[in-house]
Design goal:
The protein has two domains: 196 residues, Alpha-Beta Complex (2-enoyl-CoA Hydratase, Chain A, domain 1), CATH 3.90.226; 58 residues, Lyase 2-enoyl-coa Hydratase, Chain  A, domain 2 (Orthogonal Bundle), CATH 1.10.12. Helix 1 links the parallel strand 2 and strand 3. The longest helix has 19 residues. The radius of gyration is 19 Å and the shape is globular. By secondary structure, it is an alpha/beta fold.
């Protein structure tokens, strides 16, 4: 039996590949658990600077494994809750990973796959890929992915696409804010490679603090923006005297590469 997820680490980049091509990389319990384990391992591994997620075969991810989900209909409430919470925990870990994440979307993505995209920092989509929030057509709802997706696309778009389940192109995902670039399939690797190199140029701790800053500021109420700005100022004051920032400044003025780019 093939492993549901494959991970390869090379030159600071960990590529996590969903590896159920015969099931269009549908998310079953084993694959969700494996992704979660790999994400936590990447978070704790200094050699990993960037995490990339992609799919084996022609699809990115077909969403939840429907056969497994149908079987859950005969399970109790506690078992169903535990099953849903496993996906929630994985998406939460992906969303809050202290390292940059990039989705290399090589093919179609449905349902839960769009939650994975929403939880990633950077998303590059092959222009032939199709997407949809198909849950309502199966009599369910996109519940677990909704905090991440609605945070990206907003209430108005969610009201339409959560209810219609209509097919979306990569260009539509770009307009909605779920994708950053849509490229021909033959340019997918080159585009991801270019973005990865940009991510590798950033200082690791600074990127972690930047991700935390974005999450904290993105949903600030207008009435609290002044206080949020002062909070951000205190973060900057603390970070710019830290060793990593001092190394960054020194490297700039000495016209050399900073330590995180050496080796």
């Amino acid at each position: 039996m093939n492993a549901p997820v494959l991970t390869r680490v090379e030159a600071g980049v960990a590529r996590i590949t969903l590896n159920r091509p015969d099931k269009r990389n549908a998310l079953d319990r084993a694959s969700v658990a494996a992704i979660h384990d790999e994400l936590r391992r990447c978070a704790d591994t200094d050699a990993v600077r960037v995490v990339e997620i992609t799919g084996a075969g022609t699809a990115f991810c077909a969403g939840a494994d429907l056969a497994e989900m149908q079987g859950q209909a005969h399970a109790g409430a506690a078992a169903n809750l535990a099953d849903a919470e496993r996906l929630a925990d994985m998406l939460s870990t992906l969303n809050s990973l202290p390292k940059p994440t990039l989705a290399r979307v090589n093919g179609d993505g449905y349902g839960g796959a769009l939650g994975v995209l929403a939880a990633c920092d950077v998303v590059v989509v092959a222009d032939t890929a199709k997407f949809a929030f198909t849950e309502v057509r199966l009599g369910i709802i996109p519940a677990v992915i909704s905090p991440f997706v609605v945070g990206k696309i907003g209430e108005s778009a969610a009201r339409r696409y959560f209810l219609t389940g209509e097919t979306l192109s990569g260009t539509t995902l770009l307009a909605l804010g779920l994708a950053h670039e849509v490229v021909p399939a033959e340019l997918l690797d080159a585009t991801c490679g270019r973005l990865t190199q940009s991510l590798l140029k950033g200082a690791p701790l600074a990127q972690w603090h930047a991700k935390t800053l974005i999450r904290d500021m993105a949903h600030a109420a207008p009435s609290g923006r002044a206080a949020q700005s002062k909070d951000a100022a205190s973060r900057l004051a603390a970070i710019r005297v830290a060793p990593e920032a001092q190394e960054g400044f020194s490297a700039f003025f000495e016209k050399r590469k900073p330590s995180w780019l050496k080796g």
